[in-house]
From TrEMBL:
Residues 115-127 have a biased composition (Polar residues). It comes from Clonostachys rhizophaga. This is Uncharacterized protein. InterPro entries: Auxin_biosynth/cation_transpt, FAD/NAD-bd_sf. GO terms for molecular function: flavin adenine dinucleotide binding; monooxygenase activity. Signal peptide: none annotated. Residues 106-127, 296-320 are annotated as: Disordered.
Length: 552
């Protein structure tokens, strides 16, 4: 019988310092039973000397390794440096399980046969199409996992669980798969390049655009759900959900379209409704006197004399959208924003890893995850400085027109802002030039809006702006607020806040234990959803097979 592992062992951990590492190994050596460790003999990540950033003054020897434990197989990176005495010592060793023994993905040599007689019960149980209809409706069984949200997070964790034979139902309130992208503003495109955004098992084709228009991506997700045989119910919402400590399962009342209430009893619920929680919508003095329209960026579809409060990603994109629709736009900025362009800075971030010259996506993901986040952030300081030098002309232009800049936490750029703050940056797809050219005006107002009047608003510094529309690019709350809205206080009160880092330097609650048994958060951009859906699926599958103890 396989070893039953404690939850603390099947989790994201960063152990630092010789004494702590020695204690961890000593305490877990019997459980770990690491063996059959082999360095890669082909591909990009064979043994090599690497200088992660010339300005960092760091050099190490690195290689990708494959390994085995009692319960599974993994692939990771090891990095060695030379100490002051001239000895080669391990600087960082990453161990990441990629599959469970006996429960591997049913892909490649384990792919299904496809013939009717190869299926359970033979052709008497129907052909593929007839079986799929029953599977999608869950006529013969309960879903083991219920996923709320059919965007990239929900579809990709559904695909991972499906390949592990963990019956999964994905629900979404929208009428069509992809509507969470399709219904956004007309000019939206992805801000990350295609090679960073591939979906699990089904990468984008080689003629796919570098940056994906939102409607094209929406159609891709609709096709992806069909090709990957995902069970998705659209126009579906949750009426209530109760968790039983006795049965370790949920009782969920679901409303599907205008039909009757359906009761399901999954063992796990995954909240996959996006990176953030509910919109942060401030209220202002005398707002009811305003004759125009005030709304949050989450409600924006398409664009007029239009101030906009907020200068992050959404603020820039929507300001550009308004300008391109003929509006007179003023951006209100309360604090500095980190600005990076898709053409230069984003390219520099992914160069050699997620581009046409890079390794297979699976290896790139292992490499990308293999350094502790705090080490990555330290290296990002140097990368951010190089990006700023490459984009000096644009940044100087923004400064000249009064746009306040910053370069992230400790000058570490966009990655730390995304993971720890959930905002404070703009990935530029054209708005920067409009600001520099004076086509979009910028006004600094550290304390924001003081009050509204009938024809506009008055800022805290006393300046008055005329407006027909005010768009609030004021960000979003924590994902826990959405959990509360959907599942209620009883569940939400046990949940941990999501994102930012814990004491070990790992991201809080997302893709791992949430604070409530049988409840998981799943979110992030397309790349993070691809990478971490694998690890969340492995945690759920391991618990299903009795390989580790779920936290209470």
């Amino acid at each position: 019988m396989a070893t039953r592992l404690p939850h603390a062992f099947v989790d994201f951990r960063t152990i630092r310092g010789k004494d702590k590492i020695a204690k961890y190994i000593n305490d877990n050596s019997n459980r770990l039973n690491l063996r059959n460790v082999w360095r890669r003999k082909s591909g990009v990540y064979t043994p090599r000397i690497e200088e992660p950033d010339p300005a960092a003054g760091v050099e190490w020897a690195e290689t990708m390794i494959d390994f085995e434990t009692d319960i599974g197989r993994g692939s990771s990176m090891v990095r060695l440096v030379t100490d002051d005495a001239g000895n080669n010592v391990i600087f960082a060793l990453n161990l990441a399980l990629q599959e469970l023994k006996g429960h591997e993905d049913n892909v490649k040599e384990r792919r299904p046969h496809g013939g009717n007689n190869s299926l359970k019960g033979g052709s008497m149980q129907g052909n593929w199409q007839e079986r799929r209809e029953r599977e999608k409706e869950f006529n013969d069984a309960e879903p083991f996992v219920l996923v709320i949200g059919a965007g990239q997070a929900g579809l990709e964790i559904g695909a991972r669980l499906g390949r592990l034979d963990a019956p999964t139902l994905i629900i979404d309130r929208n009428p069509r798969i992809g509507d969470n992208w399709r219904n956004r503003y007309r000019t939206l495109v992805t801000h990350d390049p295609v090679n960073y955004c591939h979906t699990p098992y089904l990468p984008f084709p080689p003629n796919w655009p570098l940056f994906t228009p939102k409607d094209k991506l929406a159609d891709w997700f609709e096709a992806y759900a069909s090709i990957m045989e995902l069970n998705v119910w659209t126009s579906t919402t949750i009426e209530s959900a109760e968790y039983s400590e006795e049965t370790n399962s949920w009782t969920v009342r679901i409303i599907r379209g205008d039909g009757p209430v359906i009761v399901l009893c999954p063992q796990h619920i995954i909240l996959a409704t996006g990176h953030s929680g509910e919109p942060l919508v401030p209220k202002f003095n005398e707002q009811d006197k305003f004759s125009g329209t005030v709304y949050h960026t989450s409600q924006h579809q398409d664009a007029s004399h239009d101030p906009e409060e907020g200068s992050g990603n959404s603020g820039h994109d929507i300001s550009q959208n308004f300008y391109e629709n003929g509006a007179d736009v003023t951006m209100l900025q309360r604090s500095g924003t980190y600005v990076i362009s898709v053409e230069k800075g984003v390219h520099m971030q992914h160069n050699g890893i997620y581009d046409e010259t890079g390794p297979p996506t699976e290896d790139a993901d292992i490499y990308d995850q293999s350094l502790p986040l705090l080490v990555q952030f330290a290296l990002k300081v140097h990368q951010t400085a190089r990006i700023a030098e490459a984009e000096k002309e644009e940044l100087d232009g923004l400064r000249r027109v009064g746009f306040a800049l910053n370069f992230g936490v400790d000058n570490s750029g966009v990655t730390r802002l995304y993971l720890c703050k959930g905002g404070g940056y703009s990935i530029d797809v054209g708005c920067t030039k409009l600001i520099i050219d004076g086509k979009i005006k910028v006004h600094q107002s550290v304390d924001g809006i003081r009050e509204f009047d009938e024809g506009g608003l008055v800022l805290a510094d006393g300046k008055r702006l005329d407006a027909d529309v005010v768009v609030l690019a004021t960000g979003y709350d924590n994902m826990r607020t959405t959990a509360k809205k959907i599942l209620g206080d009883k569940v939400a009160n046990r949940l941990l806040d999501v994102w930012d880092l814990n004491d070990e330097g790992e991201v809080n609650a997302i893709w791992r234990y949430s604070g409530h048994p049988g409840f998981w958060y799943m979110g992030g951009n397309l790349a993070l959803c691809r990478m971490y859906s694998k690890f969340l699926a492995l945690q759920i599958k391991a618990s299903k097979e009795g390989l580790y103890t779920l936290p209470i």
